[in-house]
Design brief:
- Chain A: It comes from Poecile atricapillus.
- Chain A: One of its GO terms (biological process) is tRNA methylation.
- The structure holds 2 protein chains of 2 kinds.
- By secondary structure, chain A is an alpha+beta fold.
- In chain A, the strands form 5 sheets. In chain A, strands 1, 2, 6, 7, 8, 9, 20 and 21 form an 8-stranded mixed beta sheet that branches. Chain A has a 6-stranded antiparallel beta sheet with strand order 14-15-16-17-13-18, with helices on one face.
- Chain A is globular, with a radius of gyration of 27 Å.
- By secondary structure, chain B is α/β, with parallel strands linked by helices.
- In chain B, 31% of the residues lie in helices and 13% in strands.
- Chain B has 19 helices and 24 strands.
- Chain B has a 6-stranded mixed beta sheet.
- In chain B, a hairpin with an 8-residue loop joins strand 1 and strand 2.
- In chain B, helix 7 packs antiparallel against helix 18 and helix 7 packs across helix 19.
- Classes of the chains: A alpha+beta, B alpha/beta.
- The interface between A and B is large, with 98 and 102 residues.
Chain lengths: 692, 779
């Protein structure tokens, strides 16, 4: 009752009220709004223009290495981007195909128009979700809820026309629009994206509230006219056949392989380097000290840091019908006429027409260390942040945060405990933990190397890791998806049990699988699961040899593939279990929110105290990942917290002796007065033996 | 008493001073006497912590601090009463340039009991000060990053060093040499890991070339080689640290205890003219030429019915089995020169353990008519068996002691190595344990085709080893401690010392296993399924107490089994060669077709061999005696003409090999000249493309042959020079591509962690920093 749909609010007398209000319609905002609505919250999405919902502001592609992992996790929580990509792509390709399934990177070139269209269709048809065009100028605030950190709580937003909307929680996903400033050459003008107004009022509000805000920059390359490019001499990259869909729900993508478009590779040469070098004085963006993305470097910075070599430029289509080509790797902020010169120096682009110059954007971001793992701000209760505003780069990083913020904004209104993902559970857990404990000084991009448990957190098993939790704890997963995940989980367990129960001698296996190089000689029986670990064996081959009972398993293509991956990584996953438990253990060791690091009596240097104070780690696990924090500091902090907060039962002792520490080492004659030996506590020992 | 008073005072203060420390946001300050126990000439009291400044100020009664790190003479006063306690030297070490990294102070006092206790009491009365806990100074230094774990261990060893060589080794370690070596390795690994990660995260469309992978492979293989070399130091560092275990052994009444007393320069052991006086094992630590020696005197080795003496003999045997060095004492008057080797053999010195023969009672020879009086060296003195250093000694007169000591020193030098030469030693078993784990992870990286890991599956509890499954084609496994349940072990080269092998079940196909070191206490090895394919197990060292090995299928080509005791129930064994001392082989069930059994040292007490099926082709069985009740021994035939092949030197081998009957097909070895010692040339088969072996006289040069197939197929490579080389053959030959880079990177992570466990250095790896420094990546 009281939930109103779009357009039904109006009179100044009664401000409309929503359970969740999301500001921004980009990749974080759409996912956040949809997730909150799926979770059952009456949700309002506020955006400058409904027509720009789902806009891909930069590259015309989704996914990649690490990013594809995030998309699978978003999808496992019933998020939108995976599904929408399966209906909008024009070139699907899995990266890292030959480097192991743990690091496969699902990726696709996306038709911008189609993506926007499909995303808007999803958003506008999501039950409980209302969309309204409006700018947000301020937040409505009130006294904080007692007993929780925060100096006030948000109760709604003030719109550009002065009207207000009341809200249970508010999610800010304003991307680069906070005091956004576009740079082309020496020119600059305020804008969030070329042609779109920046958000100034909100930036002031956040500043007034005392949020620590930093400045980042990023850039985008010029756009080229496809019909002016000579592709004939360039290296072509064809899409995969068959294409692999992003979503667990998709059986296939919408487009046939033969209808897909190719990408082309060309390279810059020294001519481009010369032009850039000669014109540095015309390039404000590059000269300034604001941290740019190392992961998304401009051509200028590549040329300056790695001179005298060629740099890759990928020519990517922007859509099926589009005449626009996105030259990935050519991000520039030179004045437009010089950009044209650089473009024409590149093979294949000699006659290319520049449709739009590249430009740099500088924008405010919020120091994400002011957020909890549920993405709620510590300063203002019920205010959540997601996406590029938190210092990340990339659609997928934004979408992943959006889902988590949406879920938690909804749970907050419902009075339920927050939904957080551990580093041991998903890339999104690593992403948010890195952001909220370490902060970032450059746009944060997901990499598989940031993930400690890469062997376990794979694209193939995101549903097994997150869908159940999403359904049971967050309520953001549809019944259909949940049932599908349950079915797959059962089938995997059955399949593995069946494979393990099929045991034959090696000689028998050699007879059964004459084509496979099974090493002879082993006499004890070997299970089919063991055999499946061989590089050259797959379920199809096994099923051909043993149709009963394996035939059925092999017929289900997705199951067969997943069984193969499970077999290949079983050893590593089992091996990582203990380590994962350690991480979970430390993640479970909560630090009190109100700890005054400058006052506590623990052996910590002033420098460490400062770091702890500015990072405000929530767990001992988070402490261990703050750079510059020594193991000793962790141990000392652990000791302090243990003795001072034992009553809280937050710190549990795990019975495990530290075999790696030579406890007798301190038997020297340094002192003789006290016989108490200065052994390390067991937590301490665990830190010593486990480099985190 | 005074001390205790100071302590309780300090404790009370400590509790009270908490609040002030809290306000300071600082840690407490510790103090302790750092020199020897009073009374003594000078006593040094150290403090560490933020209160050290205050200590100097209040004890010297002036706010003026002495200049940093300079000894200054000051009057020491009790801050409470201003009473003068002593006049002494004080030093001020402001942190971080101090031992602990904190502010430190030292008070050099007169070492009287009263002076020291008065100053300690005074210190305890100061706010924020408390007596240090044991080892707390070092602990603080560790926590402040002033030294790593190995450095701390080195420091403790330095304090505990009793001999010059120990001191040198400990000093090197305390100065951080081992830590630096490990850190260098760790950096190499981080670099390799970062490049691998770059290849994973950026490789495909972001300008990281495939060749990164091969560069990483090369550096990882190089690192693995370096670590393996370090591990092959034969426990030198550990031995030097703990002392070389030397055992005096010999028949009864040859003067073992006299030698013992002579070496430790006091009558530690009872000596009598009666044989069997010594029953228990006596032990004394000695310093010989700067090397530490733990010398044991043992009961004379003989068969006896006296239960007490028999116990003594058992203990002597046990001690012998663990010896690093054996002093075999023989009565020079009782052994004919020609029979020396035989006499030595009866002592059953474990194979591979260096031995010094001491021919005692030289004074009696001198008295004998055949030797001219006063002759410095006795011409008729029998030289020991070839290759075994021998000393002629008279315990009675001390004649020959100097020569013996020099001989021992030489042996010790070899056993302990020169602690100043080469890379720093591994002084703790935990060092080698983690290093082995590190090397194992690197081997898994290098083995490339990680698909093969699969083919051994089926491992339950892998215990300490953690990863025995999938050990395929592994060169040199070092020392292995505590093997839990082991699944399938593939091809294994050089297994080092293995301790406490738990339940080993289903060792499937063990492929080629070379040079297994000492194996102690194999628990209950039930059902070693079918080891028929165990090819070429060589040099099994001392195997103690093999529990019940049942059903060893067919261990063809098992050679050089050292000292195997209590092996019961062995099934069919073929081709056992060079079985050192095999005792108490219980019920060998159906031992059939013992192929080419040669040089079975001293086989006795082969209890009940039951139905020994035709033993054929026994080569040179050496001294086989007491094959007691061997039941039905069927005809032994075809003892080939293998005996003299042993030393064919360097010529015409092909024909002679032919005569040996048992030599399996040797195919395609290019030039067969100069095969050298062909007695040991056991099955060289399937050396794939051996065209280029060329001159096999220098068998070590095989290492240089270009195209060689995987080691596996070389069969038995024992006598092709050092097997160390064979690993490199595999490596230089066909390198299989890494198929799952993510798995390979995981191995590097594991390896890095093991190194970190040795030094205690942990911390987040900054792989990304390296990636962005070394590669132009990003879109």
């Amino acid at each position: 009752p009281g939930h109103r749909r779009a357009g039904s609010e109006g009179g100044a007398a009664a401000a409309p009220r929503y359970e969740v209000v999301v500001i921004g319609g980009g990749h974080a905002g759409t996912e956040a709004a949809a997730a909150a609505a799926r979770g059952g919250a009456c949700t309002l999405l506020l955006t400058h223009k409904i027509g720009t919902i789902g806009e891909m502001s930069c590259n015309p592609s989704f996914g990649g290495i690490g990013k594809g992992h995030l998309m699978r996790e978003v999808d496992a929580l019933d998020g939108l981007c995976g599904r929408v990509c399966d209906r909008s792509g024009v070139h699907y390709k899995v990266l890292n195909r030959c480097k192991g399934p743990a690091v496969w990177g699902l990726r696709a070139q996306i038709d911008r128009g189609l993506y926007k269209e499909n995303m808007q269709k999803e958003i506008l048809n999501t039950p409980l979700l209302t969309v309204r065009e409006a700018s947000v100028e301020d937040l409505l605030l009130t006294e904080p809820e007692p007993g929780c950190p925060g100096k006030c709580q948000v109760t709604g937003v003030v719109l550009g026309d002065g009207s207000t909307v009341r809200a249970g929680s508010v999610i800010l996903t304003t991307g680069t629009f906070l005091r956004g400033m576009i740079h082309i050459g020496l020119e600059m003008h305020p804008a969030g994206r070329l042609g779109d107004q920046p958000a100034i009022g909100l930036a002031h509000t956040l500043e007034k509230l005392g949020f620590a805000v930093g400045r980042l920059k990023t850039g985008t390359p010029p756009r080229l006219a496809k019909d002016t490019i000579d592709f004939s001499g360039l290296e072509e990259r064809a899409p995969d056949n068959p294409p692999v869909p992003f979503s667990f729900l998709s059986q296939a993508v919408w487009i046939k392989p033969e209808d897909q478009l190719s990408c082309y590779l060309t390279r810059t040469n020294l001519k481009a380097q010369q032009i850039i070098r000669d014109n540095l004085h015309l390039n404000n963006h590059v000269r300034e000290t604001t941290r740019g993305p190392r992961y998304c470097p401009s051509l200028e910075s590549k040329v300056l840091r790695f001179p005298d070599r060629e740099h890759q430029v990928w020519l990517e289509p922007e859509g099926l019908e589009s005449n626009i080509i996105y030259p990935q790797g050519m991000s520039m902020t030179l004045p437009p006429e010089l950009q044209e010169q650089v473009i024409k120096s590149v093979p294949g682009l000699e006659k290319a027409k520049m449709l739009q110059p590249g430009y740099g954007v500088q924008y405010d971001y919020l120091d994400p260390r002011q957020l909890t793992a549920s993405l709620e701000s510590r300063l203002v209760q019920r205010l959540f942040f997601a996406g590029q505003i938190n210092g990340t780069t990339g659609y997928e990083e934004a979408a992943a945060q959006g889902v988590i913020a949406g879920i938690n904004a909804c749970l907050r209104v419902q009075g339920k405990p927050p939904f957080t993902v551990s580093r041991t559970e998903g890339y999104v857990g690593v992403l948010i933990d890195d952001l909220t404990t370490l902060g970032t000084s450059e746009p944060y991009r997901m990499f598989t190397s940031r993930v400690e448990f890469r062997m376990s957190l794979r694209p193939d098993n995101a549903d097994a890791r997150l869908t159940h939790r999403g359904f049971e704890e967050a309520g953001c997963v549809s019944q259909q998806r949940y049932e599908q995940a349950v079915k797959m989980r059962a089938a995997l367990a059955d399949g593995i049990a069946t494979l393990k129960s099929l045991q034959f001698s090696i000689s028998k296996w050699s007879q059964l699988l004459p084509e496979a190089p099974i090493s002879s000689g082993r006499r004890s029986p070997v299970s089919a699961f063991d055999i499946l670990q061989y590089q050259d064996i797959n379920m199809e081959i096994l099923a051909r040899a043993i149709p009963e009972p394996l035939g059925k398993l092999a017929e289900w293509r997705e199951l067969a593939e997943r069984l193969k991956i499970e077999a290949a990584y079983e050893w590593c996953v089992v091996n990582q279990q203990q380590e994962m438990e350690e991480v979970r253990h430390y993640e479970a060791l909560q630090l009190p929110d109100d700890l005054d690091y400058f006052a506590i009596d623990a052996s910590l240097s002033a420098e460490v105290r400062e770091k702890l104070d500015s990072n405000r780690p929530q767990t001992i696990g988070a402490v261990s990942r703050i750079p510059g924090i020594t193991p000793a500091a962790i141990v000392n902090l652990l000791r302090f917290v243990k003795t001072n907060h034992r009553k809280t039962e937050k710190l549990k002792v795990v019975p495990k002796s530290g075999e790696y520490f030579p406890e007798k080492m301190y038997s020297g004659k340094a002192t003789s007065q006290r016989q108490t030996s200065a052994e390390f506590s067991e937590e301490e020992t665990r830190f010593l033996k486990t480099p985190l | 008493m005074a001390l205790r008073g100071a302590m309780s005072a300090a404790r009370g203060r400590w509790a009270r001073s908490l609040s002030s420390a809290l306000a300071l946001g600082a840690t407490d300050t510790i103090f302790a006497v750092s020199s020897g126990r009073a009374p003594c000439g000078v006593a040094v009291i150290r403090t560490s912590g933020p209160g050290s400044r205050g200590v100097l100020q209040s004890l010297t009664g002036t706010p003026e601090l002495p200049p940093a790190r300079v000894l200054t003479l000051r009057r020491i006063r009790d801050p409470r009463t201003a009473e003068s306690l002593d006049r002494g030297l004080v030093v001020w070490f402001p942190g971080p340039r101090s031992f602990t990294g904190e502010d430190c102070a030292e008070l050099h006092l007169h070492g009287g009991t009263a002076v020291v206790s008065a100053v300690l009491q005074a210190l305890g009365s100061l706010p924020g000060l408390r007596p240090a806990e044991r080892g707390e100074f070092t602990l603080r230094a560790f926590r402040r990053g002033k030294l790593d774990l190995t450095g701390a261990e080195g420091l403790r060893d330095l304090i505990g060093a009793e001999t010059a060589a120990q001191r040198r080794q400990a000093l090197r370690q305390a100065e951080g040499e081992l830590g630096q070596l490990l850190q260098r390795w760790s950096r190499t690994l981080t670099q390799a890991l970062a490049h691998l990660e770059a290849f994973i995260d950026f490789g495909e469309d972001e300008d990281v070339e495939e060749e990164v992978l091969s560069r990483v492979s090369v550096s990882v293989r190089e690192l693995e080689r370096e670590i393996r070399a370090q591990l092959r130091d034969g426990r030198r560092g550990e031995r030097l640290r703990a002392g070389v275990r030397a055992v005096i052994a010999g028949p009864p009444n040859v003067g073992k205890s006299s030698l013992f007393n002579l070496l430790c320069q006091r009558p530690a052991a009872i000596v009598s003219p009666h044989a069997g006086t010594t029953r228990d094992v006596l032990e004394v630590p000695l310093d010989i030429g700067g090397f530490p020696l733990v010398l044991s005197d043992t009961a004379g080795l003989r068969h006896t019915t006296d239960p007490v003496e028999r116990q003594g003999v058992t203990r002597a045997r046990a001690r012998l089995a663990q010896a690093d060095l054996v002093l075999a004492v023989l009565d020079v008057t009782a052994v004919a020169p020609a029979a020396l080797a035989e006499a030595l053999a009866t002592l059953e010195v474990p194979p591979g353990v260096p031995c010094v023969v001491v021919l005692n009672k030289a004074d009696l020879i001198r008295g004998s008519p055949s030797v001219p009086r006063g002759s410095p060296s006795v011409p008729s003195c029998p030289q020991g068996p070839p290759g075994v250093p021998t000393a002629l000694l008279s315990c009675k007169t001390g004649q020959g002691l100097q020569e013996l000591l020099e001989l021992l020193e030489k042996q010790l030098e070899q056993l302990c190595g020169d602690p100043l030469l080469g890379s720093p030693s591994l002084t703790q078993s935990r060092h080698s344990r983690h290093l082995r784990a590190c090397a194992a992870a690197l081997a898994r990286f290098s083995c490339g085709d990680t698909g093969d890991i699969g083919d051994t599956g089926d491992t339950g509890d892998t215990g300490d080893i953690g990863d025995t499954r999938g050990i395929r084609n592994t060169g040199h496994i070092g020392d292995i401690g505590d093997i839990g349940d082991t699944g399938d072990i593939g091809d294994t080269g050089d297994i080092g010392d293995t301790r406490d092998t738990g339940d080993t079940r289903n060792i499937g196909d063990t492929g080629d296993t070379g040079d297994i070191g000492d194996i102690g206490d194999i628990g209950d090895t039930g059902d070693i399924g079918d080891t028929r394919d165990t090819r070429g197990i060589r040099n099994i060292g001392v195997t103690g107490d093999t529990g019940g090995i049942r059903d060893i299928g067919d261990t063809s080509d098992t050679r050089d089994i050292g000292d195997t005791r209590n092996t019961s129930d062995t099934g069919g064994t073929r081709a056992i060669r060079d079985t050192g001392d095999t005792r108490n082989i219980g019920d060998t069930g159906g031992t059939r077709a013992i192929g080419d059994t040669r040089n079975i040292g001293d086989t006795r007490d082969i209890g009940d061999t039951g139905a020994t099926r035709p033993i054929r082709d026994i080569g040179d069985t050496g001294a086989t005696r007491d094959i007691g009740a061997s039941g039905v021994t069927r005809p032994i035939r075809d003892i080939g003409d293998t005996r003299n092949i042993g030393d064919t030197g360097g010529t015409r081998p092909t024909r002679d090999i032919g005569a040996s009957g048992v030599t399996r097909p040797i195919r395609d070895i290019g030039a067969t000249r100069d095969i050298g010692d062909t007695s040991a040339t056991r099955p060289i088969r399937d050396i794939g493309d051996t065209r280029n072996i060329g001159d096999t006289g220098a068998t070590r040069d095989i290492g240089a042959t270009g195209v060689t197939r995987p080691i596996r197929d070389i069969g038995d490579t024992r006598d092709i020079g050092d097997t160390g080389d064979t690993r490199d053959i595999g490596a230089t030959g066909v390198t299989r591509p890494i198929r799952d880079v993510a798995l390979a990177a995981e191995q590097l992570r594991l390896a890095r962690r093991e190194l970190g466990r040795i030094t205690g250095h942990v911390g987040a790896e900054d792989v990304l920093e390296i990636i962005f420094r070394d590669f132009c990546v990003g879109k």
